[in-house]
Design goal:
The complex is a heterodimer of chains A (476) and B (367). Chain A has 476 residues and is mainly α. In chain A, 72% of the residues lie in helices and 0% in strands. The radius of gyration of chain A is 23 Å and the shape is globular. The two termini of chain A are 15 Å apart. Chain B has 367 residues and is α/β, with parallel strands linked by helices. Chain B has a single domain, classed as Rossmann fold (3-Layer(aba) Sandwich). Helices cover 50% and strands 7% of the residues of chain B. Chain B has a 5-stranded parallel sheet with strand order 2-1-3-4-5, sandwiched between helices. In chain B, helix 5 (89-99) crosses helix 18. The radius of gyration of chain B is 22 Å and the shape is globular. The termini of chain B are far apart. Classes of the chains: A mainly alpha (476), B alpha/beta (367). At the A-B interface, helix 1 and helix 19 of A face helix 1, helix 10 and helix 12 of B.
Chain lengths: 476, 367
């Protein structure tokens, strides 16, 4: 069920009305049921699988506390079941294909089950949330959840189920446990609708408008020259950002409508000056997860710079594999691992020198521009149909050999500049939100506000497509 | 204080929406969806858009204070495929009327693949929109009488609309609809049905939804103009003998069905007859011309010269003999040179057809 569909609007409105106008005691049952309705659209069998895996994790976490002698067994049983579910549905084809290639076997031939395997929607997100929960319980960072319904809502709340944010027990579970005490607050409604509308604008006006152009370019990468290659990659960079951040914004907004504070996943990532900063701005909940449950357990920065760099590369490669069962994602993760490592080494080398130029605005702008090009190169691996196409296109982009300049390219790149300006506008909107809200509340007259709301509504209705485009991150 | 401001904003918001609801239809460039005939793509892609077309036609009628007008309903022949709109029968009929300084106008609401069930539904929809059916031209084709299996469905485009306006007729022919088109209703799926109903309500009644596709078309056209994109000029319509592929194409099963020579069932069990009866009932006391489109008898020589085929044609003629409508059978009356394929005509053919139709209109009491 897509956030910008009529189905979801109906479910959301019905759930909200019952949530606030019926006795608060039924809220947990209501949300449990709404989550089931939300997920059942993707298939009853996948819902059952999700419920079974969640129930196993729930019981494993409880047993860890009640039967501490076998704590590790319960921990690893839970983790293995959650991860096996993910590996089976997401990676089995990839693994067998590669074994076939290496050992010259025919493991996939005639395997009807594998050919019919469909990736259950949201599996990567809920698996990571379940694993984080088990680890946090085992480390006693959180208490295990006693109520299975509370746990179910924690894992499956429709606001974040399909594409995150990946929520942690420490901040999120207490909110759900207190769900019946949430009162109707205008502020929450305002905040919620603001984020939902922002997400809808990003998705319907920008991401979905860019999508056909990106598909067009990436369906014929061999025919693109250097400049067209860059243009295609820039377009995809913005399409992906608008698409995924739209989903995340709407998730935050939906959560707020129910009084739940979901984590923000994006903080205008294309203003990052380096890879380390980028991962603090892009898919923040995933990078935090990777840091806490892969990078730090591997050793983090405790074992010297060389090991740290290796751990970073390993962790980012895991992040790449998490996105998809394909070598393009592995390369993309590895590439970002190398970028972070490169920045780490650069920081260490320049640490003692304290060069003054690093503090200047020019340096900052230069870094942002440079790093945006590096990010864009990375997106080619993320979007290309296969590894050969990706490398061929990146080579063309870097070499700048077949320029074949055409005056129309100027319009293309002005368009990219415009998209970047919009990104900057979002940044200023975010950092000045409080003062803008104050100005809006105090100085903008009601008739003008209503006119702006009306225009936004009309534009959204005009842009929403009949056949809705799914979100890119739903495939992960 | 703060709550009062929210309340005031909501009131203003509602007022703006109401203004848009009431005024939008009058500020729309109607020629995008109606230019001598309805815009086929506009309705094809979202059938609820038929209400938008009808609303705009009604506005034209009101703006021009038209008292007498003729409405054409039918399939691709009445629509005048494959030629452009300024070479369609409605264009020619309007031109003829203008030349003779007659004040009536012709509106062409036919669209390709329209079946008699769609025509009947269109008549009901016209009534809803206050468009008169006093003077009506309908085209039918031989294929419409052939037993359906269940394709093509007796109501091809406007099934949902028929269901909501005349549930009895819908239920009567429901078994003739392909499984794919009525699955949703048969299955126990309350949620999907609610969703469908809300969608239909929005797109049939709320202006911004009704005009959404039209506005998108309008803005796309404007943007293309700004970008200097010139619309591709329509190629001239080729006559059938310039299309070598046609004989082979007509051997395909979907075309073979259209010229079957099995004896027609000429009672209410045949959806074609069922809907024709309903149409004739609706048209009692009004001017109605039903014409049977001709076929290219050189291209389809073997088919139409079968005795079964000829007997079926006779059955169609017999059916209309005692009906209170004007009936024209164009078989053998159109020169083969005027066909663009087996059934459609080149512009000169549509001009010839229009002249014949105009003669019948001249017999009606119309200004």
């Amino acid at each position: 069920m897509l956030f910008h569909s009529l189905d979801f609007a109906l479910l959301l409105i019905a759930t909200l009305i019952i949530f606030y106008f019926f006795p608060p005691k039924i809220r947990i049952y209501l949300l449990s049921l709404s989550d089931i309705l939300f997920y059942i659209v993707s298939g009853v069998e996948y819902l059952l699988l999700f419920i079974v895996v969640s129930a196993i994790v729930y019981f494993c976490a409880l047993r860890m506390i009640f039967d501490s002698r076998y704590k590790k067994i319960y921990l690893w049983t839970g983790i293995l079941i959650a991860l096996s579910n993910l590996i089976f549905f997401k990676y089995i084809g990839f693994i067998l294909t590669n074994i076939n290639h290496i050992l010259h076997l025919n493991l996939l031939q005639g395997n009807i089950l594998l050919s019919h395997l469909i990736l259950p929607i949201g599996i990567s997100f809920y698996t990571f949330q379940l694993v984080a929960y088990l680890v946090d319980v085992s480390k006693k960072k959180i208490e295990p959840c006693r109520s299975i319904l509370t746990f179910w809502v924690f894992v499956s709340f429709f606001g974040h189920l399909i594409a995150g944010p990946i929520m942690r027990g420490k901040v999120y579970l207490p909110q759900i446990e207190k769900i019946e005490y949430k009162s109707f607050q205008i502020e929450n409604m305002k905040y919620g609708f603001y984020y939902i509308v922002l997400g809808l604008i990003k998705k319907t006006i920008f991401a979905d408008t860019l999508a056909p152009k990106v598909d067009f370019y990436f369906s014929q990468t061999a025919n693109l020259n250097s400049l067209e290659g860059w243009f295609a990659a820039y377009l995809f960079a913005f399409q992906l950002y608008f698409d995924f951040s739209a989903y995340s914004d709407m998730a935050v907004g939906i959560g707020r409508l129910f009084g739940l504070k979901l984590d923000v996943n994006f903080r205008t990532p294309y203003i990052s000056a380096n890879a380390t900063e980028f991962w603090k701005r892009w898919h923040i909940t995933l990078s935090n997860w990777i840091k806490d449950y892969v990078y730090i357990p591997l050793g983090g920065s405790r074992k010297g710079l060389f090991s740290q760099c290796l751990f970073i590369i390993a962790a980012m490669t895991v992040s790449g594999i998490w996105h998809g069962a394909s070598w393009t994602f592995v390369i993309w993760g590895l590439y970002h691992g190398l970028l972070i490592t490169g920045h780490k080494i650069y920081t260490v080398l320049t640490k003692n020198l304290h060069p003054s130029y690093t503090k200047g605005l020019f340096y900052k702008i230069f870094s942002v521009i440079l790093f945006f090009q590096l990010t864009t190169i990375g997106w080619v691996f993320f979007r290309a149909n296969n590894i050969n196409e990706a490398f061929a296109l990146v080579c063309k982009m870097i070499k700048l050999s077949h320029l074949d300049y055409n005056p129309v390219y100027l319009t293309y790149f002005l368009f990219i500049a415009l998209l970047y300006l919009l990104h900057l506008a979002e940044y200023f909107l975010t950092i000045h939100r409080k003062s803008l809200v104050f100005f809006w509340d105090k100085y903008v007259p009601e008739y003008l506000r209503a006119a702006i709301y009306t225009i936004i509504l009309l534009v959204l209705i005009l842009f929403i497509k009949t056949e809705q485009n799914t979100f890119i991150y739903f495939q992960f | 204080m703060l709550h009062l401001r929210y309340f005031k904003t909501i009131i203003y918001f509602m007022i703006y929406l109401l203004v848009i609801q009431l005024c939008l239809p009058y500020f729309i460039p109607a020629n995008i969806i109606y230019d001598n005939r309805l815009n086929y793509d506009f309705v094809k892609n979202r059938t609820t858009n038929i209400d938008t077309v009808l609303e705009q036609v009604k506005i034209i009628i009101e703006k021009e204070h038209l008292k007498d007008y003729v409405v054409i309903l039918g399939d691709s022949v009445a629509y005048s495929n494959p030629g452009p709109s300024d070479k369609s029968i409605s264009y020619y009929l309007n031109e003829m009327a203008e030349k003779e300084e007659r004040s009536f106008r012709v509106f062409n609401l036919a669209m390709p693949a329209m079946q008699t069930g769609d025509i009947y539904t269109m008549l009901l929809k016209m009534k809803q929109h206050g468009i008169s059916n006093d003077h009506l031209i309908i085209n039918i084709v031989y294929a419409g009488f052939v037993k359906r299996d269940p394709d093509p469905p007796a109501v091809y485009w406007l099934q949902q609309q028929l269901k909501s306006i005349d549930i009895d007729s819908y239920q009567k022919i429901e078994s003739n609809l392909p499984a794919s088109s009525n699955n949703e209703e048969k299955g126990f799926n309350v949620f999907k049905n609610i969703k469908t109903s809300i969608n239909i309500f929005l797109y049939e009644n709320i202006s911004i939804f009704m005009y959404k596709d039209l506005l998108q078309l309008y803005f796309t056209e404007k943007i293309n103009q700004i970008r200097g994109k010139i619309p591709v000029e329509t190629k001239s319509v080729q006559p059938w003998y310039a299309k070598d592929f046609l004989p082979e194409l007509l051997k395909q099963p979907e075309y073979r069905r259209d010229y079957a020579d099995n004896m027609f069932e000429m009672d209410g069990n045949n959806p074609q007859i069922y809907f024709l009866n309903k149409i004739i009932e609706l048209q009692k006391g009004k001017n109605t011309l039903i014409f049977l489109a001709a076929v290219n008898d050189e291209l389809l020589y073997d088919d139409i010269n079968k005795s079964g085929y000829q007997e079926n044609l006779q059955r169609i003629d017999n059916y209309f003999k005692d009906k209170p409508v004007d009936y024209l059978n164009f078989y053998g009356k159109i020169d083969n040179k005027l066909f663009s394929d087996h059934i459609h005509l080149i512009p000169e053919g549509y001009y010839y057809l229009s002249k014949s139709l105009y003669k019948t209109i001249n017999t009606w009491k119309i200004n």
